[in-house]
């Protein structure tokens, strides 16, 4: 990750130097195209997710019921940390 990308992570500046080094060592950056699925219900947790650029939409497009958008995530936001800390599957 670049210094500019790290600057948009709200909690990163609150870490001590050793904690920042550990976080940077474990951060993974990938690209998702419009319409890609980042995670799916029932899958085991591998990471929690943060957004560097763009807009991430959380919805239930594959459900049998009506399509519902739960939220949109802006750059600097993240999700899935609670699921990761509880060792659950994505809901």
Please characterize this protein's 3D structure:
The structure is a single chain. This protein has 91 residues and is of the alpha+beta class. 22% of the residues lie in helices and 14% in strands. The protein contains three helices and four strands; from the N terminus they run H-H-E-E-E-E-H. It has helices at 3-7, 17-26, 81-85; strands at 49-50, 56-59, 69-73, 78-79. The strands form two sheets. The chain has a two-stranded antiparallel sheet with strand order 1-4. The longest helix is centred in the N-terminal third of the chain and has 10 residues, at 17-26. The chain starts with a helix and ends in a 6-residue tail after the last helix. 1% of the residues are buried.
Whole-number radius of gyration? 15 Å
Strand content: 5-15%
Number of helices: 3
Largest beta sheet, briefly?
2 strands, antiparallel
| Bulk shape | globular
Mean pLDDT: 85
Q: Uncertain regions: pLDDT < 50 for 5+ in a row?
A: none
